[in-house]
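sanity check this record:

:::
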Amino acid sequence: MAKRLYVAQILAVIVVCVTFATILWLLVTTKKGVGESYNSRVRTMQQQRFRPGTFQCNKYRNEEVHGRYFAMCRFENICLNKKGQFVLTKEKDSFFNDEWFDTFNGKAWLYAQGNFKTNRGFVPIHLKDGILEYEYNTNNLFLNRKGGKSKVETSKDFKYVQGSSFALYRFAAGNAGHILSENMAMTIAQMLSFDDVTLDNNIIFLEDTHDTSKPDWVLASYGYLPTVDKFSIEWFSLISNNPVQQLCHDENGYKVVNAPCRNVASAVESDEFIVCYERLYMGHSVSNLEEPYGREVMNPTFRNLIYDKLKLPHQRDLKKKKFTVVIQRKKLSSPHGMIISNVDEIAEYLRENVPNDPIFKQSGKELEILPIQLEDFTTVEQIKLLHDLDVYLTTHGSGAYLSYVISDKSLVIQSPHCSVNNGTKFCYQNEATSTYANVQLMNYLYLLPPGVEADCTPRPLKHNPNNCDPILDHKLMYRAVLGHFKSIYASEIYQ
């Protein structure tokens, strides 16, 4: 009897072990199906020895007019050399025809800057006949041609970067609005277009924004040079699990290192490879700042990547105790002006009247009014604050573009852009952010009754002599805030 019991126990242990091993095998080998990234569907670097250079690009009508052949491309097994050139190694007879190789070799295939305002964003691709062979154990590269095989010269710190990488030139990257709507939106568009949405990526900046010897260098910062590195690195770090990198050069030639780095005069002209990328994405479609229409589809993906990086829930907790209204108090020193003139009046009116509403009282919620200067918070602190709010009253500019990272079921009210000319006040609404579908965004002018004009306080500035700071009707703000409260929490209130 004891022996039979012992055998049964042994069999039970074996069954448990086999079951556990089977579950592990399924977890490792089963594909994710819908929504799985391209990153998860390719073979790992260890499984590949021969690495032919390939590309997959999309093209818009009349691209050649803009000086490029393609809009966006995914390159596989593309390398950078010490001259700072991208080199794609691909057998000449694998191209579409004999002329293709010579026609496209060394020409600008893409434009990789967030805005078309300069020539600095063009990216030439140099072609090399053959197939790369990579020895994982020795970190050596070889070039295979029909005539034989030869070793490829590489730098002493050569790396083969596995996974997905995204390279770009920065534009106006010292300003949060431009970073989000032009620089980062360009990268998110590539992720979505090529089905490779992942935090397990590498971001590479292709320039030193402080290098005054380069053409159009100033537009990399667009007048925000002191903050360009800080802002661009902080924000791009939120869509990648790896340190942001940068291409720069010193006396030994070009290199790719963690950003930021400064260029030093280089005397080296070498074809040595410094890095090769398993997959590299580059290219630009249109500015999401100037032409946002139809591109709002990317906003939830953009926001959720950042939420995943910061481990924030994708949805707000509607059962939270506080109902939070954040009002942007833009600094008087802002060079463009357009601050909300009467922040304190609005805040005080909301504090006095919202808690006295019978429905609000019934909810048991606590009203929290936060007039804030965004500059007083770090980038991560800003995102966490915006993640938890219910209503966001913001100004024209970077504050409004932060709507990218606001949760569903939040209300954003954007103040108008006002000016005064020859004593005549005029206000209009910036329509770009009204395209965002990830939040309920309401332009202030649409809240005004028919025939009522917006008011503003003239305050001439050096960079904006016609500036007129908008004055928002505090009673309209009260109605909008309370109306949003009732619509969002109705099921909780009336149950």
User: Anything to note?
Assistant: The radius of gyration is 28 Å. Residues 22-47 have pLDDT under 50 and may be disordered. The longest strand covers residues 154-168. Residues 161 and 277 are 5 Å apart (CA to CA).
